[in-house]
Amino acid sequence: MDIESTWKNSDSADDDLNNLFEHERLQKIRSKLPLKKMRTNLLIGLAYAFVITAGYIALAFYITLWQVLIALAVMIAFNTWLAIETWRLYKNTSNFISPELSLKAEIVRHYNSFMNWCKIQQRVGVFVYPVAAAGGFVYGGHIGSGKTIEEFLYNPHMVIILAITLAILVPACYYLARLMMKVAYGKHLNKLKEFIDELE
Amino acid sequence: MSEQAFLSLLKQNQAIIYKLVHVYAQSDEDKKDIYQEIVLQAWKAFPNFRGDSKFSTWLYRLCLNTIFTLNRKVKKITYTDDTGQFEDRLTTTHNDDAERLYKAIRTLPETERAIVSLHLDGYGNNEMSEILGITANAVGVKLHRAKQQLANILKNV
């Protein structure tokens, strides 16, 4: 078999492709690119960050306990920082393919975007959820027991429980964030990494 | 340039899309998804096409970049000199020789398929190196290996 001539003469009409060269069909095509999904998720994350931060700010007007106010301030600062990071990633991530980039550069761009998103998720897992849970524990204890926070935490058992809760929550949230990314995009990321290695 | 002009330019170069999709798609559903994504991405990127390179080269790059970054099911390839055990669920209208050739190319690793396709379409090592983002030397090595594998596979089918 003459490979070159077989290849050159191999193109034949395909209705599935020809049908796309019509105005109506072109307008209806929706992208299934994983980066597009990631950008949508970034926007959803951003919306949540705004709503939650607004909730914290509103809560700060009703709470007079200085310890809880400090925790809220920390949470607002973390959320703002994460929202800025998320917005930056969203702005810097194009969900369109660039024919100006080489194949390797395009794959690396996709891979890095996902890894940056993964980092943001892990930061949320480490900084936001455990602090929120610990704040909730202390405030819930204060309300439930009717004691001041100092009195509530004076009981060594409560301090131990709080320490254990944090010791479990911090790694649990971190690994949960990793696991969720792995479940959602693990195969895709492994495949991109394999392609990069093949092109190295 | 208008949508009509874009579509007619794409139509003139549809062989590129057709061939590359048949080199990578593993099923009819896969094929349709890749066709759609390529046409959409080409439509979105076209306003930035400045004509620095030929439209065909621009489209080649776009097709490869799209195919490699889509979340496709990728079959793990173990090279065996034989296409017999390679299960295909892709319906084609090729003649026998073309069908054998596509089937043989589909048994190669993904990046080598790109190199073989580019080579068969007349691209030199330097152009391939630019399109793929690897050195011309690496292209040469991979192409040599892929050609040998392809020859062995085609000998056995």
Structural class of chain B: mainly alpha
Give the amount of beta strand of chain B, in percent. Answer: under 5%
Biggest protein-protein contact in the assembly: A-B, 48 and 59 residues
Q: Outline the biggest β-sheet of chain A.
A: none
Radius of gyration of CA atoms of chain A, rounded to a whole number: 25 Å
Distance between the termini of chain A: 33 Å
Offer a quick outline of the entry.
The complex is a heterodimer of chains A (200) and B (157). By secondary structure, chain A is mainly alpha-helical.
Question: Could you explain how this protein is built, in words?
Answer:
The complex is a heterodimer of chains A (200) and B (157). Chain A is mainly α and 200 residues long. Chain A has helices at 3-8, 15-18, 23-28, 34-62, 66-92, 103-145, 149-154, 156-199. Chain B folds into 2 domains: 1-74, RNA polymerase sigma factor, region 2, helix turn helix motif (Rna Polymerase Sigma Factor, Chain: A, Orthogonal Bundle), CATH 1.10.1740.10; 80-157, Orthogonal Bundle (Arc Repressor Mutant, subunit A), CATH 1.10.10.10. Helix content of chain B is 66%, strand content 0%. The mean pLDDT of chain B is 86.
Key words describing this protein structure:
A: 200 residues, mainly alpha, 8 helices, B: mainly alpha, Rna Polymerase Sigma Factor, Chain: A, Arc Repressor Mutant, subunit A, 2 domains
How do the strands and helices of this protein lay out in sequence?
The complex is a heterodimer of chains A (200) and B (157).
Chain A (H helix, E strand, L loop, with lengths): L2 H6 L6 H4 L4 H6 L5 H29 L3 H27 L10 H43 L3 H6 L1 H44 L1
Helix pairs in contact in A: 4-5, 5-6, 6-8
Chain B lengths: L2 H10 L1 H11 L3 H18 L9 H15 L26 H10 L4 H11 L4 H8 L3 H20 L2
Helix pairs in contact in B: 2-3, 2-4, 2-6, 3-4, 6-8, 7-8
